[in-house]
Amino acid sequence: xxxxxxxxxxPWFSWDYVRANWGDITEAxxxxxxxxxxxxxxxALVALPLALVAFRRPRLAGPVLxxxxxxxxxxxxxxxxxxxxxxxxxxxTVLVGLVMxxxxxxxxxxxxxxxxxxxxxxxxxxxxxxGPLRTxxxxxxxxxxPAIVTGLRLATVTTxxxxxxxxxxxxxxxxxxxxxxxxxxYRAEIVTATVLTLALALVADAAWWLAGRLAAPWARAGGxx
Amino acid sequence: MTGDDVLRQAxxxxxxxxxxxxxxxxxxxxxxHLAMSxxxxxxxALVALPLGVWLGHxxxxGGLTVLASNTSRALPTLAxxxxxxxxxxxxxxxxxxxxxxxxxxxxxxxxxFTGLREVDPAARDAARGMGMSGRRSLLAVELPLAxxxxxxxxxxxxxxxxxxxxxxxxxxxxxxGTIIVTGFATRRFGEVVAGGLLxxxxxxxxEALLAWGQRVLTPAPMRVRAGARTxxxxx
Lengths: 225, 235
Known about the structure:
The structure holds two protein chains of two kinds. Chain A is mainly alpha-helical. Chain A contains ten helices and no strands. Chain A has one domain (17-215): MetI-like fold, CATH 1.10.3720. Helices cover 78% and strands 0% of the residues of chain A. In chain A, helix 2 (22-56) packs across helix 5, helix 6 (119-127) runs antiparallel to helix 7 (132-162) and helix 8 runs antiparallel to helix 9 (187-215). Chain B is mostly helical. In chain B, 78% of the residues lie in helices and 0% in strands. Chain B is built from ten helices and no strands. Chain B is elongated and about 70 Å long.
């Protein structure tokens, strides 16, 4: 507040800004939301079969867990840098990068969830005469559901935050607004985009939590971890 | 076709001795990168270690650690960097170190907290039964038992910081990220790829070194437990 440089005031938030730039804000938000939804959906579709394969072939489980952990340490800036020259498309670059990170989280959590199913429950299923496929579908997967939903929550929240790094290729959703605010040194724009990003992450997280509760109502009581 | 071209350019860039010398050479950038990372981890540890140890020892503040790690996951690093750039912190390396340190606090904090929380109550009881004061029990019994988890938290934080520091280049700072950002700005994509490879290699190297160091430094009986924990911490 005391740092007035003689030029126009630089507030942390301004409704005038929001009103005047409503179109840009909704466009950036829309870009961010579609990127996130698409990335998580694609990642989930790929991750579940991968986790199942690794689960059915225990020799693969160790390497899969190790590899996902190692790949996750590669920073998004580096990944986008490696992808863009190959794909030559801003949106695809960001999308593929986000799918990769979400994939790592999802495979890991689904696999750990499946491995964590109580062996006594699996034994009981076998004792009831269930085949391996039926055990997987009606016993192991439902039991792993809370862990899978946790993975989806984590993946969605990190995707929302990571998408902003897309500014490096000029397709960062709300990150694009942050960048514009940074370039023009206008605080209200950066803060508006930041608050929207946090709100988006929060809403997505709450939605998954609700979906998880509805899908696995039995996990409510014993789910304390 | 263009992909091969870019890869070839990347290797040409990496093989050019000019890119490995001087103040903008790769070794200098790596040194700057590591110095920034070390500063950020030290800064975070300075705040998070005493706080986590104290909270864990007293057995309260669990909600705070969870809140800290959840918020840091949802808050984009870039947002913090850009906000800093409009304040007294300014541009470049200093705000990046501060931002990286802020994001390094949650893993250190929650691991220190959990480490002290998960000390076997029997060990704590025995310490008290031997007449140790709360402080003595903390220093001589609880801290040594919590050490593997505290180390795992520091390792997670360090790897995360090394991966965050490249963003400095987006706010006019240094480090290895500058190769990527300069490459994008000049549309020399071979350079972009070379920078991406260098950053990824540095991160993997730091992760491998710290994993090895942690294994070597952990007393054998405690190894299994520490390994199981890093798994959940990294997710």
